[in-house]
């Protein structure tokens, strides 16, 4: 009987060690690999264009430019670009916010003006 108690204690202690040390890493890895969770934490370039009120007509070129700019921003920040189940690129929200706040949208406005045929007035 004392051997069974010692064995049970050993098994409980080993299980507690696994749960406390290794389980959080396994759960974290599982969350990073699950493509459904990136849809909650990330945005496609089209959503960025819609949030910035880009008119629907002529939006395709602007969305492509936003996508290129956000891909570069992700590379600079060392963040991964995910893909959803349909293959769209998904950009982390913090990268999108940083890009918009650092003047990224000004570059898009200049690109839209260039596509529309307007030029910058240089004085």
Task: Summarize the structure in words.
It is a single chain. The protein has 123 residues and is mainly alpha-helical. The chain has two domains: 1-33; 38-123, no CATH class. It has helices at residues 2-33, 35-41, 45-51, 59-77, 93-101, 104-116; strands at 42-43, 82-83, 89-92. The chain has a three-stranded antiparallel β-sheet with strand order 1-3-2. Helix 3 (45-51) crosses helix 4 (59-77) and helix 4 packs antiparallel against helix 6. The longest helix is centred in the first third of the chain and has 32 residues, at 2-33. The chain is rod-shaped.
Number of strands: 3
- Count of helical regions: 6
What is the beta-strand fraction? 5-15%
What is the H-and-E element order?
Answer: HHEHHEEHH
First-residue to last-residue Cα separation: 94 Å
Structural class: mainly alpha
- Describe the sheet with the most strands: 3 strands, antiparallel
In helices, the fraction of residues equals over 70%
Average pLDDT reading: 80
Outline: rod-shaped
- Name the strands of the widest sheet in spatial order: 1-3-2
Calculate Rg over CA atoms.
24 Å
- Uncertain segments are none
Q: Can you give me a brief rundown of this structure?
A:
This protein has helices at 2-33, 35-41, 45-51, 59-77, 93-101, 104-116; strands spanning 42-43, 82-83, 89-92.
